[in-house]
User: What shape does this take?
Amino acid sequence: MTQDDPTAGDAGTDGEAGRTVHRRPGRKPDPHRDAEILDVALQVLAEVGYTGMTMAAVAARAKAGKGTFYRRWPSKADLVLDAVGHMKRSQADLDSLPDTGSLRGDILALFKPASVEEGEYQLSIMAGLASMLSQDRGLAEAANDAIVEPWAAANRVLLSRAVSRGEVGATADIETLAQVIPSIAAYRALIQRKPFDRDFLVSIIDGVLLPAVRP
Assistant: This one.
């Protein structure tokens, strides 16, 4: 650990992970700067894997002050979980969800195809996350929050709209249904090491989700 950075701010709540962090007066939290550091963490994780990744390497590449950096992310696992959650939230933006008039159309519109390079990059990140979980299975719940929850939150909104339209039965278990696709996607990436492409998504929508939600 490094000595406290005298330029850090005072005590406050970490908006991304819900944790309380302590900062001295002088500098306010900068969400944009956090996002830059998390992007760098993802790059390092994809390049060298979880075992080869070090906090020092991320801090150096991101040109982050070590005092603030280590208080914000006290361990490598904290950093990786925040970084993966940041990536997933950027993919499933709750402020710009599609509204096509049908549940099937909304879920398909939410999916953004990745290039081959981007797909390989994301699989490398997920491989690093899988390595972390193999070393500490106690992190499984936190990993689920980072990987599944951002997409489940988006699906809850889409499913609730579908209930309002009468497309989905009023007694449908929205909470469970919202987790179906992101949970399968997580399994496919972490265990099978396969990309989640549009054809596979269509098979899940038409073969699993829609039959389960019909009134």
Summary: The longest strand covers residues 12-13. The radius of gyration is 19 Å.
